[in-house]
Structure formats: C-alpha cells, structure tokens
Amino acid sequence: MHPATASTSPVADPSTAASQRLARTDRTPLRADLRLAWRQVGFEQRAFWRNRSRAFFSVAFPLVFLVLFNAINGGHHIAELGGISYATWFVPGILAYGLIMATFTNLAVSTAIARDLGILKRIRGTAMPTWVFMAGRIVSTLVTALALTAATLGLGVVAYGVHLRTSTLAGLLLTLALGSVCFTTLGLAVTAIIPNADAAPAIVNVIVLPLTFISGIWMVLATAPAWLTTVARFFPVKALADGLQHAFDPATTGNGIVMGDLRSLAIWTAVGVILFLRTFRWESSR
Fold first, then answer.
1. Range of the domain at 138
2. Is residue 149 a part of any domain in this protein?
3. 0.70 exceeded by the pTM?
4. 3-state percent breakdown (helix, strand, coil) of the chain, nearest 5
C-alpha cells in the first residue's frame, strides 16, 4: 500500500471510539429511566383519579368550600382590607388550602399507606431505580396541584368575578410554583413521624388545620393578637396564603412578588428536602 494512502485512510482513533461507546452507554440508561419515570407519572395519575374518595378530598373538597363560603359571604366587602370583595380575598386563600391538600396531605397519606402495605419495600427489590419511582410520585402530585389551581382560578373568575391581574402574574406564578414544591417535599418528610397508615390522616390534619386557621385562610385576622401572627409567620402556610392574597389584592402595586414569603417557602423547601433524605423510611416500623 502506498504510504500516502495509508496515512489518509479513515481509521478511527481507538481512544475516541471507546469514548463514544462510553457516552452512548451513559446516555441510554438515563433515557430509559426518564421514560420509566414518565410512565410512572401516568400510572400515579390513573391510580389517583380512579380513587374517587382520594380525588374528592384532594381536589373537589376545596372547591366545595369555595362555593359554600361564597354563598354565605359572597355579597360582603371586607372593610379591614380596604373594602375588597369577599371573593377576591377568599379565592387565593382557598387556593392555598387546596394546594396544601393536593400536595402535602395527598402525598403524606398515600406514601404512608404504600409503606404500610409493603409497596415501597417491594419497589426497592425491583429493577426500577428508587429515584424514578419517587420522581413519578412527585411529578404526579405537582400535576394534580396544577389541575386544582386551574379549577379554583377558573371557578373564581367565571362564577365570582375575581379579576386575575396581569400586573401581578409574576408574583402569583412564583408563589404557586414554590409553594407546590415546598409542600410536596414537606409531605414526604412528614411521613417520618407517621407510625402507620391508620394514623396518617389524623396526624396530617392536626398539622394542617390549626395552621390554616391562624394563617388567615378561613377568616380575616386583622384584630388577632400579635403573638398569634408571629407564630403563623414562622410556618409556610402563612407565606403561601399571604403571597397569593397579595397578588390578587387590587391595592397591590408592582409585580406582586413578596420576597419575604418566597424566602420562607424556599427555607421550608430546603428543610423538607433535608428531612426527607435523612429520615424517610421505605419499610414499615411494625
């Protein structure tokens, strides 16, 4: 063979070929895991909506409260808040409650049940990576929260004339996104103190209901004691409700972003992630 021909022949560099094979090997499992995670999201969604009682209390229950409370107080205006209509104040408040139900309550109770039934233990014994399983549950929870948000805002705008302000849309979307992530992580973290599936609803309600009352979701707390307001501001329920109510308030100027509320939600998100990583149990303690 002529030397010039040999020097220009398209022979692949062995090191380059090995790098390409390694890159293909690294990419393929990740794509497969992502497809599996997406399928898990679909499975979780089907399981959620087929369980009618679970879907009702997570999504429909807040809408029932929205209708009932507006039927009782819909014609009133709130003097303590500058005379805004009751619906303008209550819709973002019940939206905060609905988000907590769809994320924190839903995920905490369903995870405790799955752990008690041995489902989580069996998942660890399959070929499915545990992060894929958890990612599917988390994304499914966020999808449910999105559906709840759309239903609540749609009902508020169409039935009660609540104005969705474009000027404060940035604050509304940021609060909704960070609030959903925050209570999703806390829903997983709180399973560490849930001993069994039977105790899950009681423990979750003991945590959520008092905080919703002192956070101004069900009633205006303009005359509440200062210490009660201070306690409420320590927890993320108050930050979520305040951030949403601020975005809907006609007196709000600017983009509707309340940095203090977002900071509180971000801190509690970090707390939820840390507690989940350190305390989450895949097997029942019984």
1. 29-279
2. yes
3. yes
4. 75, 0, 20
